[in-house]
Amino acid sequence: MLPYFLAASDPNAAPPFFTLLSLVFMGVIIIALILAKFKQSLMAGYFICGIILANSGVLFHIPDAQTSIHALSEVGIILLMFTLGLEFSLDELKHLRKIAVVGGGVQMSICTVCFALGLHFLAGLDLNHSVVLGCIVGLSSTAVSIKSFQEFGLSGTSGAKMALGIALFQDITAIMLVAMMPQIFSESAGAWETTINIGTSVAKGGFFLIIAWLIGKYLLPGLMQAVSVTKSRELFTLMVFAICSGIAMLATVMGLSIALGAFVAGLVVSSSYYSHRVLSEVLPFKDLFLTVFFVSAGLLIDLGVVADEWIWLTSLTIIVLIVKFFACIMAAKALRISGKMGLFATTSLTNVGEFSLVLIPFMKQVTPVPDNVSTNVYAIAAISMGLTPLFMKAASKLTSKYQHIPGLKSKNEQITVESLDNQLTNIHDHAIICGYGPVGRHLHEQLSLYGIPCIIVDLNAETIKSLYKQGQLGILGDIQHQITMELAGVSRARLIAFTFPDPNPALSAYLQIKSLNPTITVMARAKFKTEAERLRHIGIKYVIHDEVESGMAAMKVAMRSFDLVNIDDTILCELAPHSHEQA
Hints:
mainly alpha; Na+/H+ antiporter like fold; Rossmann fold; 2 domains; six-stranded parallel beta sheet; 27 helices; elongated; disordered N terminus; disordered C terminus
């Protein structure tokens, strides 16, 4: 009844678009809290929210609800592709090229062939649709698999490397599908014309990559440096979206997909020193639109159809899980990954991932796709991603209980560090130094003398470049952002020091820092007395008050000049009670 009144024709009523978003966000929060309590995938919660909204009848009272959701989901796809490009690591691909090519090739080949044959002979689809859909269903969720390894503390093992390598190969496959699908499903009357069109599309894509690389190498660094110097977060965020939309529009001008252009834009930015800061700026928006995108996918699932075909859907889900499990086992065997780690990687990759959900609507734009096909893919993705944590837990219990079985024996593995991201992930009991001015630099030097690992967080690109050249760990970003806190390992750190005299970052970040790590020591600077009091008021015990410290230094010099070398420390304590007390 409420949506009916909200969507009424009254000029004072809420716009239908706002009504729809309100229902979506409120529903997502309620369902996500329930799933979080049971430690289930939140992505499944987004689907469930969409399914409930679609089948409760509430959307019938909102004019043009499907149109609004479709438009917003397209924007979500563009931002998602940009973020995927930003997170795509060329360094990781270099390190894992053998795993990516061999493991990913085996896994995708088996999945594509099995699913394509099944769709062609059992569902009656033509060969082109069967092969493309086979590839789409063969893709797994990178986010779910990598997060599962992190939760089990296995980030640096061979199983994690296998999962990451195969995920990188799948990302490349997905991007190739985005580039080639319009040509595969063109109206050309023959295989020869289709081959020529695909070749032309690949050539266009290569030329576009060269142009994007030139832009990234010669144009963007100067622009980013100029914007970074202003220290304006609003301007930097605006620049990020300008880069994304600009390069994406360049792709459309060249006759390529806007989604492909967004991915390449992220890829270009990821090769710069600004990638971590860009990611921290984009992540909140990505999560927002990604949520709406998954909800919109759930809106397409008709529970009536699912109820009528639940036996068929259950059978399809089981078949997909079995085929992907077998494909990953074969990939592990080809890579000679030990049984235990191979089983972990296999269970993490048996799902149908978010890239599949991006490609299905894109495929529907270029060629007719039966509604039951997209409904089944969405449902299988929701179920399989929700089951992944359970499969990983089952694998951990299986491998620990049945170590004596010949196929499951494995040696203890040393976690190796191969890249900056890996170093940031594996560091612990360290100090986080926010700001690398004279105070931050001196603190870093002193801690390094005692072998204490440090991560520097700064907004100055030149500072981070210099640290990289020295082999030091640095993050170009704002510590107030959650992604920067996660990259810096706040939850594993012993100390975080705000070494600049501006109290605002410490004030805004303190509560979130303490929620991530209640035992961490937080140190901050303040220039004026009122600022120091504000910092102490929110709970920061260790506050360096610049005026008091300067007064203490001046007092010491004055006392020595009058030969009062043995001055009682109580005088200094009276001068700066809070500073000495907290130090």
